[in-house]
Amino acid sequence: MAVETVRINNSGYRVKHGLLRRITPLTEHEKLFEIMLPEGESLDHDPGQFVQVSLFGVGEAPISICSSPTKREAFEICVRQSGRVTTAIHKLHEGDIVGIRGPFGIGFPVLPLEGNDVLLVAGGLGIAPLRSLINYIIDNRRDFGKVDILLGCRDPESMLFSSEIGHWQKRIDLNFCCSVDHAAPEWAGNVGVITSLIPGVNLHPLKTFVVVCGPPVMYRFVIEELLKKGIPERQIFLSLERHMKCGLGKCGHCQIDNIYCCQDGPVFSYQKLKNIKGAI
Amino acid sequence: MHQALLSKRRLADFVSYLVSGHKLVAPVPLQDGHFKFDEVHSLDEISLKYIPTILPPKKYFMPQRSSLLRYDLSKIHEMEEIVELEQLVLFGVHTCDLAGIHCLNIVFSDHPKDPHYLARNNFITIIGLECNDYCDSSAGCAMLHTHLPKGGYDLFLTELSDSYYIHINTQKGEDMVDESSLFDDVTRAAEGELNLLRSRKRELFTSEVPIRYQDIPRLFEETFDSDVWSQLGEKCLSCGNCTAVCPTCFCFDIVDEPELDLSKGERLRVWDSCQNEAFATVAGGENFRRKRMDRQRHRFHRKFKYLMDRYGRLFCTGCGRCSRSCMAGINLKRTISALIEERG
Predict the structure, then answer these.
(1) A1, A257, B104, B105: least surrounded by Cβ within 10 Å?
(2) Nearest Cβ partner of A250 from B71, B107, B274?
(3) For chain B, which residues make up each domain, given as ranges?
(4) How large is the ipTM?
């Protein structure tokens, strides 16, 4: 008649040990963590999926995977110092261990993109999840048509992955264009919101798939511009930011209407989202 | 055997039989006409006539705090996935609460399954008890089709004039009936009495709000932008009582609780509420249901639309707890009536 403690098999809450192999500061608030699973096990994720990163005693936080699955021996996450868990993660050192659950969710539509032109639109921290897709495309570049990347951020100093972006800009098989909200006079690039870049993109609307990833406020304006270009609703994909606590479609935090972002998303087509109240 | 009779004078012996085997939990009285499920040792502690308990039996299936993992940082992040369980018999569960348990079972059995929740199933025995009359004016069980038994129990008791009619739904129930040797065969008179009671119930329990079960999701779909929601938002205090007492609310948070020396601790599942302001807030500070109106509408839509889309059943059992416990007087049946009226 007493309380028994029973061990559970196949618990969705079990974490794997992730070894922090390399930590690279990117900006004042963001760091890049390269993580290796035990015995070099591959995370085997899709671009656009996320993991739950945890520190026992502190808690868990959902973080997008920002490396391509073509890089198999380790994966990367870009963490902005924002809450309790991410602040604790920022204090870790190379060689420390974090808990990893996942990957979770439905990522970017890699297969429908193949054989088509691709326009990728990233705002702010949205470049982190999109980087998983960009590097996937680069590693499989022959399978895709024309690739355009638009990036918007607050100012040149807050730009993530700037040295990598330098390489993207040099490639002849990517068209990269960037705009900042404000910058010092010596900034040679564009100044203005990201939507101002869309009209200038030379694209064939019916054979172009668009993937948008950025802060919630950006979506409505970007979609408006894309629709003006004649891109069909089913060819526009958005990654939604919500607080996924369990990742298993149960806890309710990431719910919008009858969908759970953690399992049904975070990536959805605009065709699906436009009818869901409260989604964008 | 699928039915049996238990003479009323033997009910105390049956309760004693149950107590001799396992922890027995049943409705007991509190002050001011309230009740709760709690451990009992004899029949005289149990309230056989009770309005829905403050907390539903959910607290035994999905406790307010339950362990998911135990970790030990001194042993290189060693962890153990666990559930803490206790054999218990739930006695006197009304049909609305049986429906609530059923809803939770569906959610946690859906992929990805939750073995922490599901492990409890074999540890809890359920003995239902029929309501022959309405408990109070907050009940909406006829609207939600939960006023008659539809499974979800091992044994189910219906009070007749001098005995209880027992429906036996599982082998576990049958074994209790056999082992206790307190039950008789069903008589024709008892069958007749049960049929009479059920037909009287069908007349007494009619949908409390002028709407049919199958039309409820569409009502909510069509009234998303109704003024009723802003009126609710103005009243709501965002206290979360309604979700805590709801037999089908299962939202939770995951928190770590270290021991004092920080080397060991537990990762826990604790109840959370979509009514809390921070529930849908993300790291950057954006809150997707910032207004109380948004959060109340979300709660209602979860009960009557969203989870219907997902699981094919309404997630309201009509128990009336949210209406009884609301400090601001938000009433579920009046809200649905207002939506019907506004839609016309």
Answers:
(1) A1
(2) B107
(3) 3-66+82-204, 213-251+275-343
(4) 0.91
